[in-house]
Amino acid sequence: APPPSPPSSPICGSSGGPVKESTPLIAFLQRVQSAALQTFGSNSFDPKLYVDLPLQRALPAAQAAFAALPRSSRGGAVPAADLNRFLGDYFGAAGSDMVYAEPPDFVPEPEGFLPKVEHPEVRAWALEVHSLWRNLTRRVADDVRARPEMHTLLPLPGPVVVPGSRFREVYYWDSYWIIRGLLVSKMYNTAKCIVNNLISLVDSYGYVLNGARAYYSNRSQPPLLSSMIMEIYKKTGDLEFVKKSLPSLLKEHSFWDSEIHKLTIKDGHGCNHTVNRYYAMWNKPRPESATIDESFASALSSSHDKEKFYREVASTAESGWDFSSRWMSNSSHLTTLATTSIIPVDLNVFILKMELDIAFFAKLVGDNSISKTFLEASHAREDSIRSIFWNDEMGQWLDYWLKDSNNCKDSHQLDSGNQNQNIFASNFIPLWIGIHASDHTIAQKVMNSFKRSGLLRAFGIATSLSNTRQQWDFPNGWAPLQHMIVEGLAKSGLKEARILAEDIAERWIRTNYVAYKQSGVMHEKYDVEACGEFGGGGEYTPQTT
Ligand SMILES: OC[C@H]1O[C@H](O[C@H]2O[C@H](CO)[C@@H](O)[C@H](O)[C@H]2O)[C@H](O)[C@@H](O)[C@@H]1O
């Protein structure tokens, strides 16, 4: 089914809204990026590489040398030898400002590691994967702290774990699953260090950035900080850690619960429901992908339309699902992204989880008043999730599209026709926090709906049913989505759902194992139709660890 149409008239929420200031270094690196594309061509070109380059000489000197480079008469392209010499003279290698750090709590085989995994080959593989922590743990080089203006990398206080390959910095929502893995590896201190780094971002910016780079400061990512702290607390019982983290969680909650991210939908009974959306503070090309964004925007005629498109692109990056037909009114055209007009199921579930976690932590540290406030907020949000997203006929929770002509209005009228009935893995994310668990009829309905949805394939859960060549679409499967649905099914209280959860986990692990045996690496996404095949599509080469 086509998704509901987004508003057709200009919407202030997309063309207007806040825009974060950029830095002179980012602006300059973007010009270098553009020259590099013209010089080296688009084959294997990764625009992110250029905005990750650390300066080695002062910016004015680098700018003067860049301006003096010979250029072709058609402008832009520089002879490759000259550009390479310039890059070598003025910059360090991308990633050289993030240095390897030996995680102090790493041991080759932790005591009590995966006690149920007995098969010798599978166990050997699990230990190899465990040893990847040593390659992925990094800290910022001293120069980043000493001369921050020379780096787009942000000076974090402690060691972090990076996703790997082109992702040379810490990422927000990735860190939740990294921490789940670290806890399995009994690396509790490294897990706490990651949280402390993210908290330092909340202290400086008021929210956790998409990633720890200056060019990611205009947006966040799916808010899972409280979930990280909860998992660490469950394993360590460290109350002091919870106490120190709580003020940052409150600060993060107010970031999501204010202005751009929040709006109200009034239902047929006159009840107001507060819901949240992704909304970046940016209306220009993303620096890490500027050449790509500009090329898409060239199909748009007015500067207003371009700015609107750029805000939609950055807001989609905030969702973590960049990119997917989920956010597009026409799945063949990226320029139809309408993320700021969509109220996403998963974001609202993550914020509900944040509220429940804060209520729990506040009670733990003896602040009953905060606990009560957040418990009440969580009840209201549960009610909103039921009213806005739940579709009883389908047995799924569906994204809600704002169709009014003005998506920055404070209040909108509920219209059930605005639910997007297309099937995405996100329609089942409420399972993860057990929304359904107290009601077996709902649990059964959701499980049946999931089994019929077409998402479950031979080697895992597909992200959607549309093959658009976007990376968050069919046939790609992503580990976070497998994990949340498997964990949700397992705790639904139904025996059949538990068996299904084990079956899905097995399908996923099998393809991960076969791919690892074939390629020697773990992949960020897999093709859920073919055993051992990694995923594709999207704007960058598939990444490995
Ligand atoms: O460089 C393009 C985009 O890359 C990131 O997104 C993808 O990788 C992230 C790190 O693993 C992951 O969190 C995200 O879900 C992926 O889609 C980045 O987060 C984007 O902001 C960036 O524009």
Summarize the structure in words.
The chain is mostly helical and 545 residues long. It has 19 helices and 14 strands. It has helices spanning 12-15, 24-40, 47-51, 59-67, 80-90, 120-131, 133-136, 142-146, 172-184, 188-205, 225-236, 239-256, 290-297, 303-318, 345-364, 368-389, 440-452, 479-490, 495-519; strands spanning 98-100, 137-140, 160-161, 262-266, 272-276, 342-343, 390-391, 396-397, 400-401, 411-413, 456-457, 460-461, 476-478, 525-527. The strands form six sheets. It has a three-stranded antiparallel sheet. It has a three-stranded mixed sheet with strand order 5-4-10. The longest helix is centred in the last third of the chain and has 25 residues, at 495-519. The chain is globular, with a radius of gyration of 23 Å. The model is unreliable at 7-15 (pLDDT under 50). The structure holds the ligand OC[C@H]1O[C@H](O[C@H]2O[C@H](CO)[C@@H](O)[C@H](O)[C@H]2O)[C@H](O)[C@@H](O)[C@@H]1O. Ligand LLGJG24Q binds at residues 48, 163, 167, 171, 173-174, 210-211, 286, 288-289, 317, 320, 322, 540.
Quickly describe the structure.
The chain is mainly alpha-helical and 545 residues long. The protein is 45% helix and 7% strand.
